[in-house]
Amino acid sequence: MTSVSAPIPAPLADAAFPQGPVVSVDWLAEHLHDDNLVVLAASMGDADVARERGIPGAFLADLEADFSDPTAALPHTVPTNLQGLLESYGISTDTTVVVYDLHGLMVSPRVWWLLKVAGLENIGVLNGGFPAWIQRGLDTTRLSTPTGGGRIDAEPQPGLLVGADGVERALARSSRAVVDARSAGRFSGVDGEPRPGLRRGSIPGSVNVPFSEVADSAGLVKSPEELRGLLFTRTEGAKSLVFSCGSGVTACVDAYAAVIAGYDDVVVYDGSWADWGNPANQKPIA
Questions:
Q1: Which of 35, 99, 172, 264 is most buried per CB count within 10 Å?
Q2: 245 is catalytic
Q3: Which spans are transmembrane here (predicted)?
Q4: Distance CA 270, CA 173 (A)
Q5: 67 and 128 share a domain?
Q6: Same domain, 184 and 230
């Protein structure tokens, strides 16, 4: 990696939606009934809870179902026909899409990243998620059922996702850094992995930015300047970032933070530690 004297990327001039990806509760409440808006309730292991009570008009985006590839050996990898999936949710190229989750900032950035992979641009993440919506005393209801009707002709961006070979190429370049979003305990190998059969530890040469450090104590994403400083310091000034985690979900929280901070060369390791940490793949472990 480069030295800490390297230029720091400029943060977004305005991280607030629609100039940036951070959607405030006020913005969503004001625009909730816009004709060309789709709201997605991202879930991972809590679909029933998310479906029962959510933001009015929202659709469920379940990472344990159609928002991942059910035929893949690895968990939570990109669906094979991503644009077709999104079209079935009524999403078109020019649709504004806002994603939230029940936790605040844990699962929604993965769905947001999939929207980016599909080539969509008018997309954002609700700051503070469903807890922030509830705290404001706004209406909730059972989630709606999508009826299709979308049409996407945007150019897909599959390069936003990489495999193990992309990680290895990044480690060989001084201007790139591999960033692990798992907890410090899992990164160091002190704590075991929640998925059985995986080795403990981390990718040699990677650095640790737990996804929990991206939000403040109120569950709101930190400012562009704070995120820029955090990532710059941990990566020793690297300009290009590859994000990893347990399966590619919370890696997207860190990737979301990097975009807010002004980084424009950001990719996510699809499969992440579920791939690298599999003993059958014989990858080196730190």
A1: 99
A2: yes
A3: none
A4: 20
A5: yes
A6: yes
